[in-house]
Amino acid sequence: MRAMRVPAWPVKAGFGPGAATWVLLQQVVVRGLVAVKFLVIGRILGPSAIGLASVALLAVAIAEALSDTGLAQAVIQGPTPPTRDQTGSVWTTLATRGLLIALLLVACAPLMDAQFHLGGALGLVQLAALLPLLRGLASPAYFIAQRERRFQHIAGIEIAAACVDCTVGVGLALTGMGPYALLLGMMVGEAFKSVLTWTTLAPRPPIRLRWSGIGHYVGFSRWIWASSVIILITNQFDKVVVGKLLGPAQLGAWQMSSKLAQMLLADAAIAMSQYLFPTFAAHHRGGAQAAARLFRIYLGVTALGLALVVIVLRFAAEPLFSLVLGAAWLSAVPLFRIFVINMAISALNSVLASYVRAVGDARAVTVASLIQVATLAVSVPIATQHWGVMGIAWSMTLGLASGAGWMLYRVWRKR
């Protein structure tokens, strides 16, 4: 039947449930709200408070990456959808993981305080521990909705959660909650999102402890886990070094310049990967050539657009920081000019990773991350010795480019 075919045109126009329009709308609204939240809170609190919150979120990122099951991607990529019992096993696994991460973070809070100069702000790390638990309690029906490309529904959930996050976070910052405002906003937003996945999406998994029936996902998901661990090293290495050696204030400046570059460049491609991964996978199930043709179109358009944006942002960096964040943040401008290049490469990497995972080559993403780690291991000591913190930033650029080169090579080999 015609209705069952995957459309040949790369973007399904209009406002149907599976249209890319919903992914783009979600990107604009959600990223816009995230930008408003971080910029407003950053202007109110300053670099030091943002640095304290960043340490707490860094702890969450480390714990989540080290325990990534890869089940979400495996459900989306698999040749057949999971049964109701299998979704129950997925939920049990993810909820258990969230609980264990939360307990680990609470136990490690004193260590984080000592290593990152939190000044006794243990409550930040302990509060952040609730984030992985709330995420783990969400319904696996969300992954099935992504697999089936129900982008309209997904966009509604993400936009509603982002509205709650932004409203609560900014409101609490204005009332004097300090760095806790950022974390509490995220917590309430994640809790609301988890509730929506249970109340608005089907099929609902059975709520009982069950781990069996999902062994066939392990072959694919183990590469997702390995990739997550390696990406953790590449993405969080800089924050660990800056936070430990220079303290929260310098970490806040580093984090805000990185975050602003990410919001302006990489977030669009990362969000678009929610459309690209299941779409590439669907095309690949229908024929490898169709998926390859679609990938080439997206990669070319993305590369051209990113190049133009990078040029504009590098020229506009200083007035942008002065206008948006204020004079207290101008020291971060040189870093921002490097980060826009880094985030542009990251955006290209998200398109590349979506494709190679969709065609079943999750190993290629892991190897790309290993190449990036090796590049950093060689270049960071030399670059730091000659150029200090700017050298670390340029080393990240070299590492990202090397990973992208490997994935492009793998794509070319599959032609």
UniProtKB/TrEMBL annotation:
<feature type="transmembrane region" description="Helical">
    <location>
        <begin position="389"/>
        <end position="409"/>
    </location>
</feature>
<keyword id="KW-0472">Membrane</keyword>
<keyword id="KW-1133">Transmembrane helix</keyword>
<feature type="transmembrane region" description="Helical">
    <location>
        <begin position="329"/>
        <end position="352"/>
    </location>
</feature>
<dbReference type="InterPro" id="IPR050833">
    <property type="entry name" value="Poly_Biosynth_Transport"/>
</dbReference>
<feature type="transmembrane region" description="Helical">
    <location>
        <begin position="118"/>
        <end position="143"/>
    </location>
</feature>
<feature type="transmembrane region" description="Helical">
    <location>
        <begin position="48"/>
        <end position="67"/>
    </location>
</feature>
<comment type="similarity">
    <text>Belongs to the polysaccharide synthase family.</text>
</comment>
<feature type="transmembrane region" description="Helical">
    <location>
        <begin position="260"/>
        <end position="277"/>
    </location>
</feature>
<feature type="transmembrane region" description="Helical">
    <location>
        <begin position="297"/>
        <end position="317"/>
    </location>
</feature>
<dbReference type="Pfam" id="PF13440">
    <property type="entry name" value="Polysacc_synt_3"/>
</dbReference>
<keyword id="KW-1003">Cell membrane</keyword>
<feature type="transmembrane region" description="Helical">
    <location>
        <begin position="364"/>
        <end position="383"/>
    </location>
</feature>
<protein>
    <submittedName>
        <fullName>PST family polysaccharide transporter</fullName>
    </submittedName>
</protein>
<keyword id="KW-0812">Transmembrane</keyword>
<feature type="transmembrane region" description="Helical">
    <location>
        <begin position="88"/>
        <end position="112"/>
    </location>
</feature>
